[in-house]
């Protein structure tokens, strides 16, 4: 099996994760060279979220990375506003949250800084549902000021600046391709 191409891209706020250009929203592909316009994205980041976005020319790789049963870890730095006991929020998140009969998996929290009304957290998650962080924080009466994805599996944002991209390490790509091959071998 050949090694797919994987690109690490720092998606800035103000762009949608879509191949379709819309009149009111700009696509991430406006920021990338044309040769990447046919690549598939691993998950999405909404218009107001920034950070690491993976793109690949392999549907198989993208499918593996996004399939919930594979439990790929995602990490986000989140800035919140709201008067709360942040340790209590952390405990709630670690148990999982139910909103309108919909269960969100546990989110592990590291408190980076916290004052009475401002909080910086590092959230570690194993799923990536649509606007999940925003929905949960709103449910807990907290306002999200900023969300930045800093890692997805073994891939990390590291020193990339907004709108920059680099090719992923072949060693990390091979790690995931071996996982895919193991799964194919057991089916």
Automatic annotation (TrEMBL):
Enzyme Commission designation: 5.4.99.-
PROSITE patterns per the UniProt record, alphabetical: PSI_RSU
Family: Belongs to the pseudouridine synthase RsuA family.
Alphabetized InterPro entries for the sequence: PsdUridine_s_RsuA/RluB/E/F_cat, PsdUridine_synth_cat_dom_sf, PsdUridine_synth_RsuA/RluA, PsdUridine_synth_RsuA/RluB/E/F, PsdUridine_synth_RsuA/RluB_CS, RsuA_PseudoU_synthase, TruA/RsuA/RluB/E/F_N
Keywords assigned: Isomerase
NCBIfam families recorded: pseudouridine synthase
GO BP field: pseudouridine synthesis; rRNA processing
GO molecular function: catalytic activity, acting on RNA; pseudouridine synthase activity; RNA binding
UniProt cross-references to PANTHER family, sorted A to Z: PSEUDOURIDINE SYNTHASE FAMILY PROTEIN-RELATED, RNA-BINDING S4 DOMAIN-CONTAINING PROTEIN
Protein's UniProt name: Pseudouridine synthase
Enzyme superclass (EC): isomerase
Classification via Pfam families: PseudoU_synth_2
Organism of provenance: Candidatus Xenolissoclinum pacificiensis L6
Domain Pseudouridine synthase RsuA/RluA-like as annotated: residue spans: 5-139
